[in-house]
Amino acid sequence: MNSQIKNTKWTKSKGSTSSRKLAALVDASKGKIVSIEFIKKDGSIRTLVGRTGVKKYLKGGKSSVDQSKFISIWDIQNHGYRSINRDSIVSVRTSGIEAYAI
C-alpha cells in the first residue's frame, strides 16, 4: 500500500467524509486501481473503475482539464479517459479502503 495513503487519516472500514477528501484519496492512489462512484452532470449516479496517471493515450502527452476541479482517470472498462468533478464524488474504494461522502 502506498505510504501516502497509509499516512492519510482513512480507515479501512466504512467511514464518511467530504467529496474533496475523497478526491484527495483518489489522488493519493498513485496509479493504483480505484472504484469511484459519482454524480454525473445529468444527475445520474455512475461507478467508474480506473487508474489515475495513465498518459499513454493522451494526444500531446498532457491532460487539458483543470486539475483543481476535475480528476482525469483512465476508465478500464470502457478504455478511455474520463474527467470526474471533484465535488460530485460519492464514494471511493482503493487499496482496501472504502470511504463515503457525507
Task: Please provide a written account of the structure.
This protein has 102 residues and is mainly beta. The chain contains two helices and seven strands; from the N terminus they run H-E-H-E-E-E-E-E-E. The protein has helices at 3-7, 19-28; strands at 15-17, 33-39, 45-51, 70-75, 80-85, 89-94, 97-101. Strands 1-7-6-2-3-4-5 form a seven-stranded mixed sheet, covered by helices on one side. The chain is globular. It starts with a helix and ends with a strand. 22% of the residues are buried. Residues 1-16 have low confidence and may be disordered.
Remind me, CATH topology? SH3 type barrels
Distance between the termini: 25 Å
Number of helices: 2
Per CATH, the architecture is Roll
Low-confidence parts lasting 5 or more residues at pLDDT below 50?
Answer: 1-16
Helical content class: 10-25%
Give the tally of β-strands.
7
Radius of gyration: 13 Å
Shape: globular
- Name the structural class: mainly beta
Element-by-element helix/strand order: HEHEEEEEE
CATH class: Mainly Beta
Which percent band covers the strand fraction? 35-45%
Mean pLDDT: 81
Q: What is the total number of structural domains?
A: 1
Order of strands side by side in the largest beta sheet?
1-7-6-2-3-4-5
Largest sheet: number of strands, sense, barrel closure: 7 strands, mixed
Oligomer: single chain
